[in-house]
């Protein structure tokens, strides 16, 4: 099950569980749409995988399967994937 991390790893912008601005790679690294496109060029800086829009979990499912509260932030910001 997706963790639905609460923030962008680059800029620490909040990303609510229902955000359509959240982008993830296959390892669930999470970025806002602006960082994913403008900074990272659609590639995860951690694994070089493709960044795609994170699915939205229906609100009624969040009751028993809440989003993660663990924030992951790259202390030095992010550079484009090599």
Automatic annotation (TrEMBL):
Organism for this UniProt entry: Ferranicluibacter rubi
Superkingdom assignment: Bacteria
Protein name: DUF1272 domain-containing protein
